[in-house]
Amino acid sequence: xxxxxxxxxxxxxxxxxxxxxxxxxxxxxxxxxxxxxxxxxxxxxxxxxxxxxxxxxxxxxxxxxxxxxxxxxxxxxxxxxxxxxxxxxxxxxxxxxxxxxxxxxxxxxxxxxxxxxxxxxxxxxxxxxxxxxxxxxxxxxxxxxxxxxxxxxxxxxxxxxxxxxxxxxxxxxxxxxxxxxxxxxxxxxxxxxxxxxxxxxxxxxxxxxxxxxxxxxxxxxxxxxxxxxxxxx
Length: 233
Ligand SMILES: [Zn+2]
What we know:
By secondary structure, the chain is an alpha+beta fold. It folds into two domains: 10-117, no CATH class; 124-232, Immunoglobulin-like (Sandwich), CATH 2.60.40. It contains four helices and ten strands, in the order ααααββββββββββ. Strand 5 and strand 6 form a beta hairpin. The chain starts with 9 loop residues before the first helix and ends with a strand. The structure holds zinc ion (ZN).
C-alpha cells in the first residue's frame, strides 16, 4: 500500500531538486560564497518542512542553498522529518489495518451469528388433530383432550373440529382458558382438505416454561374462541 498522502510528495522532491539546482547555478556562476549570515535554526527547520510562509525569493533560502553548513543542517532536518513522516505513515497504516480488521471481524461475526441463528432454529412440525375433539367454550369447564408441544419454534397444523367454518383463524398458546397470558400467537387462513378445515401457523415457544397451557383457536369473523388443554414439555 502506497500512502502517497503521507510519504514525501513529488512537490518535496521538486523542492529538493530546486535547492540543488540553485546551488549548482551559483557554483557555476562563481558565487560560492553564501550571501548574508546563516539563518537561525527555526528558519531552517521551517524551510525543511517547506512551511508555506517561506518564499523561494527569500534571501535566506538562497543563502541556505549555498552555505554548506546550512545545507547540512537542512538535510538533517529533512531526514528527521522523513523518518517522522514514515513513523506517522506506519502508525496510520497500522491503525487503518486495525479498523479494517475490526470491521471485517464484526461483519463476519454478524453474518455467522445470523447463519447460526437460522441454523439453530429448526422449526418443529407439529400436528394437532381436533377433528373429533370436543371443545371447551371459554365459559365451560372440563378437559377433553390434551396436547403436548415442545419448547421450540413450531409449525403447528391444526385440524379443526368438524363443522368448523372457513376463514381466518388466530391460534394462541395461553395460560388460562380466558385468553390471558398469551405465550405465542399466529394467524392464518384455514385451508380445506376434503371435509377437513385445517390451519397452520408458526409459534415460538422457546421462552415458554414447561407446564400446563391452553391452545386457543379463534375464528376471526365470529370471534368464537375454543380452548384445548395442552402441555409444554
Ligand atoms: Zn549558512
